[in-house]
Structure formats: C-alpha cells, structure tokens
Design brief:
By secondary structure, the chain is α/β, with parallel strands linked by helices. It contains 10 helices and 18 strands. It has helices at 39-45, 69-78, 92-100, 157-162, 170-174, 189-192, 215-218, 235-240, 246-255, 274-281; strands at residues 2-7, 21-25, 30-35, 55-57, 85-89, 109-113, 120-124, 128-134, 142-148, 154-155, 179-180, 186-187, 193-194, 200-205, 223-227, 260-264, 287-289, 295-297. A 7-stranded mixed β-sheet has the order 6-5-4-3-2-1-18. Strands 7-8-9-14-15-16-17 form a 7-stranded mixed β-sheet, covered by helices on one side. A two-stranded antiparallel ribbon has the order 10-13. Helix 9 packs parallel to helix 10 (274-281). The chain binds zinc ion (ZN). Residues 60, 62, 137, 207 line the site of zinc ion.
C-alpha cells in the first residue's frame, strides 16, 4: 500500500502548499482521500493515472477538502471515463454536486452518505477494507482506516497431504477453520497451517481537535497521517478551531502504538514546517512531514 501526498496545506493555499488531498494505492483498490483545490494538477504532476481511482473519500465539507472534486470529475468525464466511481461523503455533497454538474456524466457515481458521528464500513473485499470513523471537528468529519488483509493462515502443504485434507477445503484452512474428516475426526487448523503476516493499516486523521475518541480505530496502525495545523505556541487557537498541534498529533500516534507518523494540514502562517517536525519528534521519533509528491509505503 502506497500513499502519495498531493496537498499538505491548511485551509488557505500558501507557501507552495496545496490544500489536502492524498492518493492511496491499495493494489486492488485505488483511493482518493479528500480533494482540495488543485488536486488534479498535482496528480498530473506526479504521474498518477487518476482513472485508476475507484473510491473517493471526502472527510468533511470544508472547502479545502473538496473544492477540487468538481474539476477532477469534469476532467474524468472529458477523458471519457466509463468506470464506476464510489463517493463517500457527508450527505450534503450529493446536492452540491448536482447543482455544479447539471449535465450527464459518462460514468456512474455511487454516492454513499457517511453517517455523522458514526463509523461505517465503506469497502470490504477479500483483500482489503476501508472504514470511516468519526473525528472531532467543527462540522461532521470522518477519518479513514485502510487495511490490507494479510492475516490468512499459510498452509503447510506437507502436513495437508499427510493428513489427507481435500483440495476443496484449502481456502477454509487459510481462514482458520478446522477440518472434520468423514469419520468425524477433527484436524485442528494449527496442525496443518502456520500463522500469516499481520495486516497492513494506514489511518488518515483529519481534520480534528485533540481527543482520544478515535484511538480504538487507529490502534496499531503501520502508518498514521494526522493533521498538525499548528505549533505548540498556538495551542489555544488549535483547541478553539478543532485542530491539533504537531505535539498533539504525535501524542495520538504514540497512544495508538503506531509504527510511523506523517503530519500535514499546516496553517498558512508558517513559511516552513521545521518547527512542526522538531516539536512532534520530542514525543514520537518516527515522524515525517507529509511533503507534497512524497510516496509513503505502508510497511
Ligand atoms: Zn476542516
């Protein structure tokens, strides 16, 4: 799973930073998470084949998270896209898009409303899962947990043959089921399989004030993206506006027992992000700035 940063700025584009948007390649599924103004320009710049995107997630309806969507959808139409698109967002977006795009698209958009203050399973396949979970902002907002499923058990083919487990049951063995022979004898799963690799988890947390309310959703993530709009000196402003400081973002990553953290959504008042990084590092060592154009591999 790879995460490409398209925009890492806060509400106002400034200092070369575009508003929030990320491309997440999960292999079988491709996601666009938030679509701030100019996201499609960044996709072109970074060579992202945006017709691969089959799911778009909009965290909330502040303009810096979705004003790029209409332009991108229009380009997709002009490029002759026919592939269906799933769009997950607050229910109000459907009416906004209907006004903006008062003409038929050559592809179907399946709109799925995210329930305010509740979680929702958005994508569920054999290979991956995406769950929307509520975070704490001034309007209903969701974060997203993206999981690559890898925890299937691995068959011990020698043992399987020796104990005469039939072919048709192999898939069930990888799912952890015991095999029951025609004579009623049970072959415990652990006897014929080995433990699989743990899942890979990427969690996207924006925009949000500092709270432990969504910790359970992002626990043990391999990689967390967390908004870090302000530095420590502006903590009052962060609290007032339901945003986080870099140190608060790092605290969340630490409490979630995450492996790695990337931070973004920087306020336009900061010319550089050096102080954000330095402050976050005092709490959580493995932190990086979510620089535009950088590709983070979830591992
Ligand atoms: Zn916001």
């Amino acid at each position: 799973m790879q995460v490409t940063i398209l925009g890492n700025g806060g509400a106002i584009p400034a200092n070369g930073r575009f508003p929030t948007s990320q491309f997440v390649d999960m292999g079988t599924e491709c996601l666009l998470i938030d679509c701030g103004e100019g996201a499609q320009i960044k996709m072109q710049e970074y060579g992202i084949k945006s017709n691969r995107i089959n799911h778009v997630f909009i965290s909330h309806l502040h303009g810096d998270h979705f004003f790029g969507l209409i332009g991108w959808l229009n380009t997709q139409a002009l490029l002759g896209r026919t592939k269906d698109l799933n769009l997950y967002a607050n229910e109000k977006l459907e009416a906004i898009l209907a006004i903006q795009m008062d003409y038929p698209l050559p592809f179907t958009v399946h709109f799925k409303a995210l329930p305010p203050n509740e979680s929702m399973v958005c994508v569920q396949t054999d290979k991956c899962e995406v769950i929307a979970f509520p975070v704490w902002h001034s309007i209903p907002t969701h974060g997203f947990r993206c999981t690559i499923k890898r925890n299937k058990r691995i068959m011990n083919s020698e043992k399987v043959r020796e104990l005469e487990v039939p072919n048709y049951f192999y898939k069930k063995l990888t799912e952890g089921l015991d095999y029951i022979k025609p004579n009623g004898d049970v072959i415990p799963n652990e006897m014929v399989t080995l433990a699989g690799k743990p899942n890979l988890i990427y969690s996207y947390c924006a925009d949000t004030g500092f709270t432990d309310a969504y910790l359970a959703f992002i626990h043990t993530s391999n990689l967390i993206y967390h908004e870090a709009t302000y530095c420590a000196q502006q903590i009052d402003k962060a609290t007032q506006r339901h945003h986080c400081t870099a140190m608060q973002a790092a605290t969340i990553a630490k409490q979630a027992n995450a492996k790695q953290l990337i931070i973004g959504h920087f306020s336009s008042q900061y010319k550089t992000t050096d102080l954000h990084l330095a402050e976050a590092k005092t709490i959580f060592a493995d932190v990086q700035i979510a620089e535009q154009g950088m590709v983070f591999t979830v591992q």
